[in-house]
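Batch manifest, entry 17 of 40.
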Amino acid sequence: LIWDLRIRKGEPEIALHKESGRIAAAAFERCFSQVRPGMTEADATRILGEAIAEEGGRVGFFIVTSGKGFFDRVAGLPRDRVLQPGDFLWIDLGVVYRGYWTDHCRATVLGTASQGQRDNWRAITALTRATVDQCRPGQTAAEVVSFIEAEGRRMGLTFSFAAGRSGHGIGLMSTEPPHIALYDHTVLDTGMAFSIEPGWIDQDLGVFVAEENIVLRPGGADMLTVTSRELVEQ
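Output type: structure tokens
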């Protein structure tokens, strides 16, 4: 009964989700405009944290990875690793506003991105957007993943972001039902809020996951995340 109530969000709850998304967008924008070689991963998260506090939110979590050979640290806490010119810096950010979460990730290159980084980032943002655009009430969570896999094959992509799922519900916790996974046959309904996050890791190039948060409306998906989808180059 509790999850039946929590899994569908009302309009006041959706407004709080959107505000947490706005706060995260402001924090990402400030961080990616200020972070520079010579700073550390921890310095980058301090910039994020200050922006989140100033915008009225609360930090939920920071997951950070940077530098060739470290991209498998997709659940890594910020380190004192010094950022180098040309580093690919990927951040997964959780922000809470009045109890309601946003959870999404973006990336920047401390310099000029390589063509491979640009191509991979364009591919993952295109796949993520295509998945969002086809989400409808009446689908199952597993059917969303089937679309991701089919569209990924059509685009020639190979997934290696082995979280066991391609998204998750979001609400008063950062991870809630439904699970966007082949094993979850929950029928998606109006008011359900969840993330879409397929992706892959290339140890030479970076982490290519550009998570979005959405809520289902009768006609399709309404975006809860407003952070720029561009790969920021400095």
